[in-house]
Amino acid sequence: MQVRKQFPFTDFEPKWQDYWLKNKTFKAANPGEPGAEKPKCYVLDMLPYPSGAGLHVGHPEGYTATDIVCRHKRMLGFNVLHPMGWDSFGLPAEQHAIATGTHPRVTTDENINTFRRQIRALGFSYDWDREFSTTDTDYYKWTQWIFLQLYHKGLAYVADAPVWYCPDLGTVLSNEEVLQTPQGPRSERGDYPVERRPLRQWMFKITAYAERLLNDLDQLDWPESLKEMQRNWIGRSEGAEVDFAIEGSTEKITVFTTRHDTLFGTTYLVLSPEHALVDKTTSAAKRKEVDNYRRSVAAKSELERTDLAKTKTGVFTGGFAVNPANNEKIPIWIADYVLASYGTGAVMGVPAHDERDNEFALKYGLKIIDVLESPEGAGACFCGDSKAINSGFLNGLPTAEAKKKITSWLEEKKQGRAKVQYKLRDWLFSRQRYWGEPFPIIWKKDGKHYPVPENDLPVLLPDLEDYKPSAEGLAPLSKAKSWLELSDGAKRETNTMPNWAGSCWYYLRYCDPKNKGKFIDPEIEKYWFQPKGIDLYIGGAEHAVLHLLYARFWHKVLFDLGHVSTTEPFHKLVNQGMILGEDNRKMSKSFGNVVNPDDVVKEYGADSLRLFEMYMGPLTAVKPWSTTGVNGVYRFLGRVWRLVMEEDQEGNWILNRKLSNDPAPPEIQRRLHETIKKVGDDITALQFNTALAQLMILVNDLTKEEKHPRATLETLVLLLAPFAPHIAEELWSKLGHTKTLAYEPWPKFDQKYLESKTVELVVQVNGKVRSHLIVPAELAQAEVEAKAKALPEMDAWVAGKKIAKVIFVPKKLINFVVT
User: Fold this and answer.
1) CB-based burial of residue 584 (10 Å sphere; 0-12 exposed, 13-18 middle, 19+ buried)?
2) Residue 580: which residues within 8 A CB-CB, separation 6 or more?
3) How far from the centroid of its chain's Cα atoms is residue 246's Cα?
4) CA–CA dist 666, 704 (Å, integer)
5) Residue (of 505, 736, 642, 766) closest to 5 by Cα position
6) Pairing of strands 813-818, 758-765
7) pLDDT, tens digit, for every residue of 764-817?
8) What SS3 string covers 50-118?
9) Before 104, cis peptide (omega within 30)?
10) Do strands 236-246 and 441-443 pair parallel, antiparallel, or not at all (unpaired)?
């Protein structure tokens, strides 16, 4: 027997979704269009990658939050831009193409259709006229155009870089896509062997913007933890570069250090195995040992090499350098914990005052000299600040003064200089894949690269029959001979851009998606981005560093070139918390704990899913899914429905006969205006769970009333609309309104109702809530006790029982302890 639904959501949810789409209810106005005179608000979701698996219930959490904000803002009189699109280049579609021969676009379009259907079924108020995919030629034409702007500015260059290469996948992988296993490095996708390989790559000089990327974080309304992650990734260090002469050579080894005050304690140097001077410092007797060590290091990831917990290894090159501070001869080693890509690829070993250096020196019997006073006494590895000892002209100086003096001395002797260093490296921007944006670059016979003329954009992807890389590891595009080879003998670039490219600037294109002549009209850009950028950006914490850093970099370049009017794209940023499976693990097909939103919508309706995701807890918290919890908010919506509607004898829904045009009683008026204020304040503060809790209190109060005041119910429906828009629209129409409530004015509270002389007390028995009681705020305890005992529902809990104690908290609660 089929259970009767609490309310007929299957009848009206699809109806309102179709209505919104057909009537373009949520169309945002650009400058010059009707509605643009309103104050603007740009609210953005992070661009989703449409996978074949479709959405699970964790995905809509952030989308629901932004939708609530947008619906609230429209009711407050704002012109709201709330767009949706697709980050659709990427490796999964390419791997499916390699395995099946299906063009990646076919798979991508199928996935997009699934995501779009699921998202529309949840009633999000997107302006679908602005939808696009990063794989649309009208879009990636401008991605290529932006690349050329960086190219002309000298920020794009070619380099041979050691990269992770997976022969089976036929592409370069990032560090994050490589797993370190007992069998060696393996690809996260497919579990294939991975190797280090030098390949010609396109790079971006993001390091040229390191200082601005760091400093401008201070102006952003982002979580401090997220800003700190970006600061750590950029990794600014103030120190000095020191030049060490190589014995028997005119060459020198330059080291960056933040502890140049300990220069007198340097007893050895360590080069990265890839350092250009390794060959020149290696003696004939040590050549074989050094070469073997370098080969063993080649298969290790940077994360593995820099792991602080691992045992340090290294090899003496047989060469020596000279410490400029004391002219002492010191040995030159190579070790895997030193990276060519960070600093100068060389470090000075000060084993008395650096734990890593100390461990290395003790293992290989290297000299240790104390050059700082240590509170633990001589011979202890002390890494803090202190007075210099055994340091010649630095003796007696505290750390800060010693740094200044040694820097001046090095600059005077032309053996060093002050230096600010960043951990941030230039951005490797190439992939040996088919399914990505082609570079607008031509290689001519002279071996030099040249930009494709802007009038010839876009450079389109050619069709291929085989998407695999060549046996030699060449990119798949190298097989497209008619596309690759030009009439003058020049050839196109065969690498493609990473999927980061399209997601670096999509937020700009949403503002002006149909523009054929520009990536965005300047006046439209100013309208949506002034004064500080996007008003609210919500997405997952997994993008806390790379996507946000790359997008900020591109935006700053576009600002410098005069194409955008703000220095930062995203003013306010919030990361939603992860929704776990009911087993408290991350939702994953491998765990078998994925919940499909389609199933929830079919059983409980879209509004129930939306409400539950917001009611589970604070937006930023990690929360486990609970189907029982969905049922709870579903029943709540049923109570809302039945305040307005009831069933007749034939089972049809009709207007509730308790509806009344009389004014609400004072207690209900007070609760209503209290709710108006709290719900509005909580939406603004993104505290959706407490807003819903307040709405539930109001609904409980209304349910107890003999009559249901129509004006109060209309206000309730408007307050509920951002959270549960389908049922709100349906009830609004049932109450006699002929237009959508999407632009109805947000209700206003009257302060006089919030200054009530009465309070609502919680009535408990043995600590458990059994009732509520509205009494004058200053009523004495004895009178409160009498009124509470007189409540009809209290008979079951206190009648005939001994009250051992009464706990009274004025204006809050009364608790009877009974035996």
Assistant:
1) exposed
2) 586, 587, 622, 623, 624, 625
3) 47
4) 14
5) 642
6) parallel
7) 999 999 999 988 888 889 999 999 998 888 888 888 889 999 999 998 999 999
8) CCCCCCCCCCHHHHHHHHHHHHHHHHCCCEEECCCCECCCCHHHHHHHHHHCCCHHHHHHHHHHHHHHH
9) no
10) unpaired
Tell me the mean pLDDT in the region 244-252.
95
**Encoded tokens for 559:** 């600002």
Cβ atoms < 10 Å from Cβ of 654? 11
* 8 Å CB contact between 157 and 561: no
Nearest CA among 780, 777, 772, 773 for reference residue 755:
777
How far from each other are the two terminal CA atoms of the chain, in whole angstroms?
45
- Residue 35: helix, strand or coil by DSSP? coil
User: And the tokens for 63?
Assistant: 């989308």
Rounded Cα distance between 300 and 223, Å, is 34
Report residue 15: phi and psi, to 5°.
-60, -45
Q: Tens digits of per-residue pLDDT, 529-573?
A: 999 999 999 998 888 888 999 999 999 999 999 999 999 999 999
Q: Is it true that the peptide bond before 709 is cis, omega within 30 degrees of 0?
A: no
CA neighbours closer than 13 Å in the CB half-sphere of residue 589: 5
What is the spatial distance between Cα 794 and Cα 769, in angstroms, rounded to a whole number?
A: 11
Exposure class string for 270-284: b at 16+ Cβ within 10 A, else e:
bbbbbbebbeebbee
Burial of 166 (0-12, 13-18, 19+ CB in 10 A): buried
Q: Which token pair is 643? A: 């305040």
d(CA 45, CA 51) in angstroms, rounded, equals 17
731 CB-near residues (< 8 Å, 6+ apart): 640, 641, 644, 645, 713, 717
79-81/40-45 β-pairing? parallel
Q: How many angstroms separate the CA atoms of 678 and 687, rounded? A: 10
Residue whose pair of structure tokens reads 């002034």 in the numeric block: 530
Say how far apart CA 785 and CA 788 lie, in whole Å. Answer: 5
The predicted model scores a pTM of 0.86
* Alpha carbon distance 123, 140 (integer Å): 29
Sheet hosting strand 195-204, strand order edge to edge: 171-173, 156-166, 195-204, 427-428
| Eight-state DSSP code of residue 316 | E
Are 492 and 486 within 8 A, CB to CB?
Answer: yes
Sign for the CA dihedral angle at 61, 726, 121, 23 comes to negative
| SS3 readout for 563-629 | CCCCCCCECEEEECCCEECCCCCECCCCCCCCCCHHHHHHHHCHHHHHHHHHHCCCCCCCEECCHHH
Backbone angles phi, psi at 710, to 5 degrees: -55, -45
Whole-angstrom distance, CA of residue 380 vs CA of residue 592: 53
